[in-house]
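Hey,
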Amino acid sequence: MAKRARIPSVPEILSDVPDPLDAALDGREKRAAFLPYPASRLAPRIVPQDLTSFKTRGIGRVERELQQELVELRERYLAVIDAFNWNKLIYESQISFEPVTGEIYHLYEMSEGRRLSMIGPREWRQKWLGSFRLNADGRWQAEDVAPDFNLRVWVGEH
């Protein structure tokens, strides 16, 4: 039976190839160009740069941008929470009809609780809380809200 030829491994193959960087750095003069410090007294003086103004500008700019992102994120968060609370308020109210997507309906506070109605605030003398449009995804979007009704205060009380 014939013996198989041994296949050398990758490190064995690469060990025979000279490293071009080692060859380039053999001489003292060539190697001195890559050192982070002067290799002789005749070499030019290395003076570290003062980077405090660069760092200060960078820190200030990044802080402003991130602060703005946090403000926008907080506003978006509050808008989502408000939308959730309006939807909860509407879906927990009395609804005596099936709302049609895209139409505007009106929410009232009455003695027996909240009621969603097709009757507008000018035609009905009940405590109007707001007017809302039913979106295709089943969410209620606030179109107009009573100026004397604060949803966040109401949520805190209930």
